[in-house]
Amino acid sequence: MNCLKTVYNNYSLKYGKTEKSFLLKKSNVISVLELKNHKYAEIKNIAFELVKSLNHPLKYSSLKNIIKKTNPQNIVIVVEDITRANPYYPVILNTLIDYFPKKYKTKVTFLIALGTHRPHSKKDNIKVYGEEIVKKYKFINHNCDNKKTNEYICTTSFGNKIFINKFALNADLLILTGSIDTHSFAGYSGTRKTILPGIAARQSITFNHSFVVDKNSNMGNINYNKINLDMLETANNFISKRKKVGKETFFINFIKDHKKRLIKILSGEMNTVYNNGIKIAKKLFSVPIKELSDVTIVSCGGYPRDINLYQAQKSLTCASLATKFGGTIVLLAECCEGVGQKIFENWMKKKSLSEILSTKQKKIVVEGHRAYLTAKILKQYQCILVSDIKKYLVQKLKFKFVKDINEAIEIINKKYRNNFSCYIIPNGSSILPIKE
Q: Does residue 223 surpass a pLDDT of 80?
């Protein structure tokens, strides 16, 4: 009598700065969803490629010519915060400073595009931007709640009253840096997002993010996406306002692959960087799938993508795109800084899913918008959370708590009687599953 041997495969997914391993039957796994091959080579000499991009930007004069033409006495460089995975920032920023003629090096201030995120400490700055540059230059935390440092610039066609950080608004030369990646509700990150929400006032961010209730506010979608369109309009109005008084605005955006390898640097005029960057991102991050799974096991890709649950929510959205309604999502997110944002936490703890989802657009506040996105998924899927967040809090947040990934596997096997289809996503923060 012939007996078929059950074959198990071992999988390992990033969790904070460590990894979690587990076994699954080979027959259960449809595939591991990741971006294995692309035509872009990793940029080995980042400084060289950056200088090349600055000298030959998209639809713009070279940065050297801009500096010569404007003779800026006040240069502000906007940088992303600790929640973004930018391991190349020290090289990028030091190269950028070295690029400036000597007399302009002392005229530089860095502005951290926090949006509504927590302020940086000096330790955070050293970790993200490097000790050398933090010792030499002033870094300012954007404060979305400080009315004295945010100035009204326009009202968009959507009715959003836009207030932007004065340091950025009044800079003779403003250089905005950031990454282009998939985004839970704006479609893609980068370019215009550095302005709104990056350096905008809370009320402007709140109005913009309230459009999460709209059906087009989805990951990977920019068409008819009111969040995206409001951001674009804001950015273009902001740039135009500065241009009228002779102030220059220059964008530098980076694209990295699923292994956090830098593969593209785009600089120059915002809309051209935006359009070119999104074309590359669509090709790079889209993963075609032929079917939806019963179960999806997803990691955020480790630290800092899973620094808190607020940031990890993006990977939950990614997994939902690959999973059947009513299916199961297992999210691996260490969350060394806990839930992340207080309003998000309070909404998830104190309101029922139905209450959150019935919230009218005008009542959606920033951070509450992510509670809305999370509630939408929790309503449609069983969500199991593998995290360092305490059990009582995980349960109040309406996730299923497990101590370990293997406990989650046991729950799945029991629920489906060992008969289920499964996707494994090693980096949910960087891929876009698209059903063919």
A: yes
235 contacts 204 by C-beta, under 8 angstroms: no
Q: Are strands 262-268 and 293-299 parallel, antiparallel or unpaired?
A: unpaired
Q: Are 332 and 386 in contact (CB under 8 A)?
A: yes
AA letter at 43? I
- Please check whether residue 197 is in contact with residue 234, taking contact to mean a CB–CB distance below 8 angstroms: no
Please state whether the predicted TM-score (pTM) of the whole model is above 0.85.
Answer: yes
Q: How far apart are the first and last CA of the chain?
A: 42
Q: Is the domain 46-284 a CATH 3.40.50.11440 member?
A: yes
Dihedrals phi, psi of 378, to nearest 5 degrees? -65, -30
Nearest to 391 by CA among 374, 404, 378, 382: 404
For the chain, which residues make up each domain, given as ranges? 8-32+290-435, 46-284
| Mean pLDDT calculated for residue range 10-17 | 96
Strand bridging mode 8-15 / 286-289: unpaired
Q: Grade residue 1 by pLDDT with cuts at 50, 70 and 90.
A: very low
Q: Which of 2-11, 29-38, 81-90 has the lowest mean pLDDT?
A: 2-11
Judge if 8-32+290-435 and 46-284 fold alike in CATH terms.
no
Largest CA distance in the chain: 86
Q: Locate tokens 């009542």: which residue?
A: 363
Architecture of domain 8-32+290-435: Alpha-Beta Complex (3.90)
**Residue 37 phi, psi dihedral angles, 5° rounding:** -130, 135
